[in-house]
Specification:
Helix content: over 70%
Distance between the termini: 20 Å
Shape: elongated
Strand content: under 5%
Number of helices: 29
């Protein structure tokens, strides 16, 4: 295979090559400028490593303006960390404590933004370098000058030197998914209106396959990074919402509503579906442009709301006047429930599409803001500010089972201990002890041990190669300067294109060359590098053994259990809100906002844990597809609760008749569902026996219909809109009940897994984009 083709396969979009090429040009130039032109060794060192940190260790995405803003903020933050690190380095005890505090703050801050998460290593390096190289306060100006110079040059290089194309994979994939789902809806309506003519079936099946593929591509792109791809900017926060919303629309709403075989067309429901398709198409068009005009989308949303209202009004006359007498076989109830099913599916679809359209509208509104509104943090209607969003995300992870919290504490402890070990042992280059700790620490002891072996093997290999190189060429400065750029280029590409060990080897060669330029010492530089990395690896292994060495599989079960419990509780509270709203006197009931936030926080922790599960090396006891099914199920329960809440917030709350019997039936159903999902959580955590999925209770359906018919008929003998909403609430609960059939198999397998899962045997199940 041609080298270019091989690199294209292993380095998608040449991202690693782009970073490495910039660094190979800028880093030697910064080092030469400081050391040979200005003769300032501290400036040279910090300019060189600042270039390394801001060009090779971080790769911001999105539009160029956002990338440059993030790059500028990183440079300012780095300068501040250099000052703090230098001041802390003057006292050993202070340096250890400061390392712990700064490391925890920097690592944990990544939970609020993918921009911060992606810059974690770069920011830590800005503190590790000065805190591990003690110097008086008088050295601060030269150190900051070097780091600031690197920041300015990196800023220019990002914009002008082989600039990366704008990459917004979620946005493009969301637009494609909207179009595919709209085509699916149109194909389904055409099939139903043709009286299920077989000639229309192939088009419908093709549309179903295309929409499934489009939504899967969106989800795959969402999982292609080791952290949730959402920053604090309004646009990134709204776009990432579309992943769950479009997934729910496809897997829960549409698949459940597509019944095989002939079925009479429900004209009002078909009208809602066509309006929904038009809304999705207008939404896709708005996603395709920046700061677009939302007029067409809003008109489509209005048409969808009108179609839903018309269907609701038509449906209020569907309740049968005749009550079922004792001894009848239940056909009346079954027939009635079946007759309401298309309208419920259309109502469920309308809510999901309206949710998606509202998110897209908010995205465009955020992009249309003036620079002053952006500067002042003014948000589009319905969206919290950046500070509120950051607080909400951080608070969700201040929980003892949070993997992100565990990793933050573990990383802080490891880096603080490495500074202590470096100070106590008096090694010549303590910086590499701390950096070695950072490079190999992972989420559990076993995986840390694997990285220790690879890290040390790579470092030893680099030492051997560097030693042989110096043996061949000596310590001639001219030759070493000539070799430095290609060595940096290879070191930047190797971790992505080859392996972690190859990256360690290449980086060791770079350091051998760099330090021999500073102070010629031959192969001894490489030997010191091996010793320092060995100490850092040992620290990582000890900390990995002491702090939460359970692995990602156990954390995955815990996160799933909590997410299902909180989502089911939110669903129950949403039903209770609806039942209280339809019978309140005076003060209206309070929506379950706290429960909604708690469910969203649990879903966020689950997402981070799932990414950690994907990143683990070694064999996984549970296939990825089954874990994904369980994760998707959480979104299904939570968004069903959102739908129930939206359904009752549109009710006028005017009481008609006695609603107690109907309320009791719905509350009982919600409690039964919550009990089942609580049992699911117990089976994941404690190996409790998982109950079979709840069966469809036709008797309960009959009681609900009788209660609604008896209690909620209007004066004209027809049902009120509130009565239909009660029936639809029962349908939402039934949708969550049917979800049990989907997740029961993976849940039973997951409940039997009691050992820590690590990546290996099933790694080939993970798409290549998730592994690189």
């Amino acid at each position: 295979m041609h080298p270019v083709q091989w690199l294209a396969q292993h380095d998608r979009d040449y991202a690693a090559l782009r970073r490495a090429a910039r660094t190979a040009i800028i880093m030697p130039a910064m080092f030469a400028l400081g050391a040979k032109v200005w003769h300032k060794p501290d400036l040279a060192t910090y300019a060189a490593f600042g270039s390394f940190a801001m060009l090779l260790l971080v790769d911001f995405t999105g539009p160029m303006r956002q990338r440059l803003q993030a790059q500028a903020a990183l440079g300012v933050a780095g300068c501040g960390l250099v000052v703090l690190g230098t001041l802390a380095s003057q006292n050993e005890a202070v340096s250890v404590v400061a390392m712990v505090v700064v490391a925890f703050a920097v690592i944990f801050a990544g939970v609020v933004s993918s921009v911060l998460a992606g810059a974690t290593t770069s920011m830590l390096l800005a503190f590790i370098l000065p805190v591990s190289l003690p110097a008086p306060a008088s050295s601060i100006p030269q150190r900051v000058e070097g780091w600031a110079l690197a920041a300015v040059v990196a800023f220019v290089a990002i914009g002008l030197l082989w600039p990366a194309p704008t990459r917004e994979p979620l946005r493009a994939a969301a637009s494609a998914a909207c179009r595919a789902l709209a085509a699916r809806l149109r194909a389904e309506v055409a099939y139903r209106l043709s009286d299920s003519d077989p000639a229309f079936r192939p088009d419908l099946e093709h549309a179903v396959q295309a929409s499934d593929a489009a939504v899967q591509a969106l989800h795959k792109g969402f999982l292609a990074t080791p952290y949730r791809p959402t920053g604090l900017s309004t646009v990134t926060r709204t776009v990432v919402r579309l992943v769950d919303q479009l997934g729910w629309l496809n897997t829960i709403v549409l698949q459940a509503g597509l019944q095989p075989g002939p079925m009479a067309a429900h004209r009002e429901a078909c009208a809602v579906k066509l309006s929904a398709a038009a809304t999705l198409e207008r939404g896709a068009e708005l996603l395709d442009v920046m700061a677009g005009d939302p007029t067409d989308l809003r008109a489509a949303m209005t048409a969808l709301a009108d179609a839903l209202t018309a269907m609701e009004q038509a449906q209020t006359g569907a309740l049968p006047v005749r009550q079922q007498t004792p001894g009848e076989d239940g056909d009346l109830v079954t027939e009635f429930i079946s007759s309401l099913d298309p309208s419920f599916r259309a109502q469920e679809l309308s809510f999901a599409v309206s949710l998606i359209a509202g998110t897209i509208d908010q995205t465009a509104a955020a992009e249309r803001r003036s620079w002053l509104d952006r500067f002042l943090g003014r948000q589009p209607h319905g969206l919290p500010g950046a500070l509120s969003a950051a607080t909400e995300r951080a608070t969700a992870h201040v929980e003892r089972h949070s993997v992100w919290l565990h990793n933050s504490i573990r990383g802080a402890a490891a880096l603080g201990l490495s500074v202590l070990v470096a100070n106590e042992t008096g090694v010549q280059h303590s910086f590499w002890v701390v950096l070695g700790t950072l490079s190999v620490l992972r989420s559990n002891a076993l995986n840390t041990g694997q990285n220790v072996i690879r890290g040390l093997a790579g470092t030893v290999a680099g030492f051997i190669v560097g030693g042989l190189l110096l043996q061949a060429i000596g310590t001639n400065p001219t030759v070493l300067w000539a070799l430095l750029p290609p060595a940096i280029l290879f070191a930047g590409v190797a971790p992505t294109a080859i392996s972690f060990a190859a990256g360690q080897a290449a980086f060791t060669v770079v350091l051998v060359i760099l330090f021999n330029i500073i102070q010629p010492a031959g192969w001894r530089i490489g030997l010191l590098r091996v010793e320092d990395i060995a100490l850092g690896c040992a620290v990582s292994l000890v900390v990995g053994l002491l702090f939460w060495p359970r692995g990602a599989a156990a954390a995955m079960r815990q996160a799933l259990a909590e997410a299902y419990v909180d989502s089911a509780d939110y669903l129950t509270r949403a039903v209770e809100f609806g039942m209280a709203r339809c019978d309140f006197n005076g003060t209206p009931p309070v929506p379950p906002t706290a429960e909604a936030l708690r469910a969203a926080g649990a879903a966020r922790r689950l997402d981070d844990t799932f990414r950690n599960y994907l990143a683990e090396r070694g064999s996984k006891p549970l296939p990825l597809a089954q874990v994904t099914t369980l994760v998707t199920g959480v979104a299904g329960v939570r968004l069903a609760a959102d739908a129930v809440l939206d359904l009752w917030q549109r009710d006028d709350g005017v009481a008609v008749g006695d609603r107690r019997a109907a309320r009791e039936e719905l509350l009982k159903s919600a409690d039964q569902l919550q009990g089942w999902y609580d049992g699911l959580a117990g089976s994941l955590l404690d190996q409790q026996a998982l109950l079979d999925p709840l069966a469809h209770d036709k008797v309960a359906d009959g009681r609900l219909v009788d209660a609604v018919r008896h209690d909620l008929q209007g004066e004209d003998g027809k049902a009120t809109a509130t009565a239909v909403r009660m029936i639809w609430t029962g349908d939402h609960l039934d949708a969550v009940r049917r979800l049990q059939q989907v997740i029961i198999g993976p849940a039973r397998e997951a409940s039997e897994v009691r050992t820590a899962g690590v990546r290996g045997a099933l790694v080939d199940l993970v798409p290549a984009s998730l592994r690189h």
